[in-house]
């Protein structure tokens, strides 16, 4: 039985996929936020010359 087009098949597929995409979005936002701290750690960063690629993507 479908209520507003929502069937059990949709729930078994849609709910886990929605969770996956929300988690991926949050992970991408965290990675984007952390890119501002690349090579600035006194412990891991060291000295990076201008024009050199960052030590991690």
UniProtKB/TrEMBL annotation:
Gene Ontology cellular-component annotations: mitochondrion
Organism name: Bombyx mori
Protein name (record): NADH dehydrogenase [ubiquinone] 1 beta subcomplex subunit 1
Pfam families: NADH_oxidored
Top-level taxon of the source organism: Eukaryota
């Amino acid at each position: 039985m479908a209520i507003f087009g929502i069937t059990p098949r949709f729930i078994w597929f849609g709910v886990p996929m929605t969770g996956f995409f929300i988690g991926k979005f949050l992970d991408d936002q965290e990675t984007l936020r952390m890119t501002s701290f690349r090579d600035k750690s006194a412990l891991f960063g060291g000295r990076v010359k201008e024009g050199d690629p960052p030590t991690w993507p």
